[in-house]
Amino acid sequence: MKTLKDYIRNVPDFPKPGIGFKDITTLIGHGEVFHQAVDALAAQFEADKIDKIVGIEARGFIFAAALAYKWKKSFIPVRKPGKLPAKTISEEYDLEYGTDKVEMHQDAIQTGDRILIIDDLMATGGTVQACTRLVEKLGGVVAGIGFLIELTFLNGRSRLTGYPVSSILSFDSE
Ligand code: AMP
Fold first, then answer.
1. 75: left (phi over 0), alpha (psi -120 to 50) or beta
2. Which of 11, 45, 76, 129 has minimal CB crowding within 10 Å?
3. Could you tell me the mean pLDDT of each successive run of 10 residues in the chain, 174 residues long?
4. Model's pTM, two decimal places?
5. Which helix (H) or strand (E) covers residue 12, if one does?
6. Which residues sit with their C-beta closer than 6 Å to ligand 1?
7. What's the confidence (pLDDT) of residue 97?
């Protein structure tokens, strides 16, 4: 029988040489398997201890929105600079060369909101770490961080000490 992991397509040397891109379109392209993956993510957290779900652009939206729908929770998009129309806050994070930025609407979170952050994949953990800073800047509490996939060899968890982090599938090499 095929496992969830069998539905992830590894695309070597994308977007650049040496990177093994974990393509989720082959998983979400199967309705039953997509459903199973969302339920597996849901099983990692307790819905009644979460107020709102943050999804990270763009593939994080797919899983975060499905969870928000399942649990009838608010969905908050974290986006690349210049995409959100109203007043935003932003956080910068380091890339291999240079920096990048993520943004959130300033009125998306109220003090004390318990936030679950969801993305498709954790590599170095830099993106999600910047998201924890966005949440906390607005007075939110990071109640959990969930991924479908974790690249354990990049040790992203070391940036997320103290947060409850869960992933469904792990890869220990490119
Ligand atoms: P990082 O900030 O290094 O944890 O990178 C995480 C973000 O980059 C996520 O939003 C992923 O979708 C994307 N990403 C990084 N590495 C890969 C990979 N090997 N395959 C697919 N997506 C990746």
1. beta
2. 11
3. 97 95 98 98 98 98 98 98 98 92 98 98 97 98 98 97 98 92
4. 0.98
5. strand 9-12
6. 19-22, 56, 59, 119-127, 156
7. 85
d(CA 51, ligand 1 centre) in Å? 26
Best probe residue, ligand 1, of 28, 57, 127, 167 (max atoms within 8 Å of C-beta) = 127
Q: Which atom of ligand 1 is found nearest the CA of 119?
A: 10
Q: What pLDDT sits at residue 96?
A: 79
The separation between CA 54 and the C-alpha centre of its own chain, rounded to angstroms, equals: 8
All structural domains of the chain, each given as residue ranges with its CATH number in brackets, are: 46-171 (3.40.50.2020)
Six-digit token string for 55? 């999804």
The pLDDT, as a whole number, for residue 52 is 98
Q: Ligand 1, residue 21: give the atom nearest the CA.
A: 20
DSSP for 63-105, please give it: HHHHHHHHHT-EEEEEB-TT---S-EEEEEEE-SSSEEEEEEE
C-alpha 110 to ligand 1 mean position (Å) = 28
Q: Which atom of ligand 1 is nearest to the CA of 151?
A: 19
